[in-house]
Amino acid sequence: MRGSVPVTLLPSVSRARRAVLSAVLCAGLALTATACTEEKPDPDKGTNGVGKLSADEIEKKARAAADEATSVRLSGTLVSKGGPYKLNMRLKDDGGTGSVTSKENTFALLRVGDDLYLKADADFWKHQDDGKDGGEPAAPTQADAEAAGKLGDKYVKVPQGDPAYQEFRGFTEMDVLLDGLLGMEGPLSTGERTKVGGVRTIKVQAAEGAGGVLDVSLEGEPYPLQFARAGGKGVLTLGEWDADFELTPPAEGEIVDYGGQLPKTSD
């Protein structure tokens, strides 16, 4: 029409491209919004819930679970004044069985009720004067060697009146060992979540780890599963909680009843 402004129409292809671009932008914005509002996975999903508690509450629950348990396997390395030694014991309310290995010796222990048996090789039973009184160390005598030969690799019944009875029995006492070895020193805090033997755990640490670190199970009962003792004094693993096992005395032919008091040993 004369005098009107000419109008240029956009090709249909351009309109299609703009529509596609708009749709892509909208989809992208929608995905971004969804990502922003998506909830993070719940770390306590499928657990026993102790991970939500304070460090002191977790430690109390772990102690209570250990106190109520009827049996446990305790293994690992301990460091004492005499040096490191390995412990591998199965323990229950009425006894225990396993082995203790020091730098010089390995001996097996078996307690059924109040009857305590000790088994070691002949070298364990050889008495040797170590020269602590100022003299030169003396080798075992012939009598020592003969006595040791009779006791070696036999279950020696430890007399209850022997001074060593309570010391050896302590290795077979479930409550005594747990109370004595799982002590923590300092204020408690929670640490990282990890796994011990494939089981999810949460760490409770004393004095930021210097006073001991306890791994507590996040699955099932909140049992202690691992403990790193304060001052680098060893690491213990605890397992087979409430898994019953049989305790039976050795056969008569395997037992030596030494009498009122054990001979002195090399350890």
Automatic annotation (TrEMBL):
Keywords: Signal. The lineage of its organism: Bacteria, Bacillati, Actinomycetota, Actinomycetes, Kitasatosporales. This is Lipoprotein. Residues 1-35 form the signal peptide.
